[in-house]
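your task:
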Amino acid sequence: MKKEIYKITGMHCASCVKTIEKVLLKTPGVHSASVNFASETALIEFDEDKVSPKELSSAVKSAGYKLNTGTESELSESSNSNEDTQSVSIKVIGMDSPHCAMIVEGAIKKLSGIENTNVDFSNKRAKVIFNPKKINLKQIFKVISDAGYKPIKEEKELGNTPDKERIEREKQSKTLKRKIAVGGILSIIIFLSSFPTWFPFMPQIMNSNWMLFILTTPVQFWVGWQFYAGLKLLIKYRTADMNTLIAIGTLSAYFYSVAVTIFPAFFINGGITPETYFDTSAIILVLILLGKYFEMLMKGRASDAIKKLIGLQPKTAKILVDGKEVEMPISEVEAGYLIVVRPGEKIPVDGKIIEGDSDIDEAMITGESMPIHKTVGDVVIGSTVNKFGSFTFRATKVGKDTVLSHIIKMVEEAQGSKAPIQRLADLVASYFVPVVIGIASLTFVVWLFFGPAPAFQFALINFVAVLIIACPCALGLATPMAIMVSSGSAASKGILIKDATSLEIANKINAIVLDKTGTLTEGKPQLTNIIAFNNEKKTKILSLAGSLEQRSEHSLAQAILQHVANPNQTPTYLLDKAIIEEAEKDDIELYELDDFKAISGKGLRGFLSVNSQKVEAYLGNRALIKDLGLDISSYEYEIKKLEGEGKTVMMLVVSGELKGALAVADVVKKESIKAVTAMKKEGIEVWMLTGDNKRTAKTIADQVGIENIMSEVMPDKKSEKVKELQSQGKVVAMVGDGINDAPALTQADIGIAMGEGTDIAMESANITLMRGDLMLIPETIKLSRRTMKIIKQNLFWAFFYNSAFIPIAAGVLYPFFGILLSPIFAAVAMAFSSISVVLNSLRLKKVEI
């Protein structure tokens, strides 16, 4: 099965969604289809062997719509397979809301030769496929600039574009501060000079309309120049945005005041008091710019996670060439190169250590605070920090294939995706500006013909107030700003969320299925018990068993040999503290092994040189002991107790005498009990899924406190077990780490992969935990619930603000209470509405994970 997102064109209303979905679902080979009217996309899961993208396009075309097979992946490349088209990825500075994205996309699409566009406001990116024979990059950049935004072509290398973007943002910030400072000073002078009876200390020359005209003009056309892109949009591209509202509103007040200044007699003869509104126009522009500046600062905080991740990547690497170190740019490093890393340096790319060892800080990738010791054969992750030792490693993944690049891509995709709850807000925002212009025009007409004298002034003031107070940005930012902050915050803690839908669904989970091996347990056998019979020392038993296992490659042998090599590094929760202390006092000696023989399904045999004597020794299970004809009835109680705990017991026989027993098991992770308890407290039904027999499964389940067990489940039946729970009306999360978990992860409403598992599991999952800490699961659910709460608060405020204040600005309270809304207050309220949404979203940064 393949999952792909396609652009759909030709949809006019929400009912089109159902039509397209029905057509797609009737197409043979299509497993599922979800069409999003707001983003004009279709997420289709289909069998590539039964149906091709071209056939999907034909099916949609038959219903009267167009499905563009220029996929997301195609958009991201610098060029695609069709030599007649090219694609480019553009950073769009100033595209700070979904409404801005809609304006940019609309402007680009009006150009001839544009094949496809994908605009993502949260990452300020536009990906465009175009025909170079009909249009060039310069023309695309021009239309973006005409719309009021700054385009920057993205570089292939990860590090270059963020630097360009930062420089451009710093430049914009300086210009904005300068305009606010100049505009603020002039606006204060204009305001004081506009009301001589209130401020008699102002010189008389400052009170003249001509002086106010001279002071206001630079504010109107220099300070407020960026808003006139809205007029260009309206005239040239027949579309409108928030800048259009501000431009029309302030220019109406300004040009009316200019007319009054130049032709006062015309207004006096017409029975209109010649009043000017220069102060209104100037103060509105400065206040809105001030709000934009604060909003820009706070949005910068919201995208900190991506900036930090990109900033992690080192610029150079030290490569071994003919035994000599050569420093080269990270962009030139290829898989297979040998790279040297010294203490305090960042690891340039992903790879495997071939020489040396060190402690490595992986906190920014996995969220794990303690450095992890790595030695020969261990995998290292690019951009993590080498703390103490020096080592050489072979590069295995470079460029866009590294773990860091995958994380950045996942976070960007999550921040750019749309949650289902966002669809209504997007739909409203898309019609918002034309509706507001209509309401403002109606307000002007009603006040002009039915308002009290001076009717024209009343009509003008209320017209301006309606245009200025309307805020599509608050509506558009409500959901994506919260998604951006929460997904970025989660990524910094080692939780990668694939898309916004997953974040929304996670808060509805009421059943969770945990795969046993590698999820609840460590996923590899570990030595848990050593029993010494007939007053033998436990370290002696370990020495003899370890000596026999020297040549074995069995996983049980590795568990014993690992403890022999590092007895004092074995956690005390696995072995009795007394055994570890005994091992520290007495050296664990490995004896010379001869005539080694593995006995299939039973154990092994060998001759050991102990105290200058060769002794025959056996290590194995009950079947081996039975073959040897030994009576172990006097030791049955201790052996059966270990077997009852689901452990594999191996008995040691030396010179025909039973000396002791060792127990090996796949042990439960330290945090499993705590995590299961936390999930139960949240009211989530916890299930354990395993292929083990009922007795072993129950033993593990009892240890972690799980009552619901699915045992003896074959790998290909795991997804069916998830379906069973879903058929009961449950919203199910599946947690796994192996290849055989992939179908179940896909089937579940939310698939959660352990980052220590396979790439296939992570690809199939909606959420990836970069370290195998189960406590991240309840924390992910907690974050999801908190995010949804913030989104609902944002949407309520945005809808309430616009629905309440636009009628007030239109003057509905005047007939009853004599209250009118000043356009200056409208500007303050409009700026505050966007800032409040951003501030509320930033509260998600404080959620402890």
